[in-house]
From TrEMBL:
The keyword Flavoprotein applies. This is NADPH-dependent FMN reductase. It comes from Saccharophagus degradans (strain 2-40 / ATCC 43961 / DSM 17024). The keyword Flavoprotein applies. Signal peptide: none annotated. Keywords: Flavoprotein, FMN. One of its GO terms (cellular component) is membrane. Residues 4-178 form the Flavodoxin-like domain.
Length: 189
């Protein structure tokens, strides 16, 4: 069984809804299981993320999709604490060869969400992971997917705490894409 983890932080729930949609997309691919893992602020003690169990679970995944709300043009502090806690694994390049992707949401249409995606892309690259963006040209998808047009990862927007249906559908699409790639690359780590 191929596994794809979805590691995310969400304070008011919209990133969590995207994570759920990514997981549904992952599970739509035969032979691939989704592993949602939520980052909670209570696991941060004196600025350090302490949930080593969550981090350990990632070793069994062939793909990992990272998700964070955009806070001040980057990932949330909670997500960054998780990132910093992976330094030992970075030194061993323990995640090298896993497929990676990312998603974020902001309340503005152009609220610097791209910086968050680029942060996630650099993070995955530091770990030697294989980054998968979205192969949907903005404005050209017949179903209107990727409505905001980013291809480095999924950028979503919500001004009222509700998820736009097309962002939800695009998250499912991304989950399915990562699942297929993870299944393809399994054994090539
Ligand atoms: C501290 C803080 C900083 C934020 N910074 C941005 C930002 O830079 N750009 C943006 O578009 N939205 C920004 N937002 C809005 C959130 O990204 C948005 O409400 C998002 O849906 C929250 O995700 P969540 O529901 O998963 O917690 C910010 C919100 C907070 C609380």
């Amino acid at each position: 069984m191929t596994k794809v983890a979805i590691v995310f932080h969400s304070a008011s729930g919209t990133t969590g809804l995207l994570a759920q949609a990514v997981a549904e997309g992952v599970e739509s691919v035969t032979g691939v299981k989704a592993m949602p893992l939520e980052i909670f602020g209570k696991d941060i003690v004196e600025g350090r993320y302490q949930n080593s169990e969550l981090i350990a679970q990632l070793s069994s995944a062939q793909g990992v999709v990272f998700g964070s709300p955009t806070y001040m043009g980057s990932v949330s502090a909670q997500f960054k604490a998780f990132v910093d806690a992976t330094g030992d694994l970075w030194a061993k390049q323990a995640w090298a060869g896993k497929v990676a992707s990312g998603f974020t949401i902001g309340s503005n249409y152009s609220g610097d969400q791209l910086s968050t995606i680029q942060f996630l892309q650099v993070f995955a690259s530091q770990h030697g992971m294989l980054w998968a963006g979205i192969n949907l040209a903005g404005g050209y998808s017949p179903k209107g997917l990727n409505r905001l047009g980013a291809q480095s990862g999924l950028i979503a927007q919500s001004g009222d705490g509700e998820l736009h249906q097309l962002d939800c559908d695009t998250a499912q699409y991304l989950g399915a894409r990562v699942a297929r790639l993870a299944r393809l690359y399994k054994g090539e780590m």
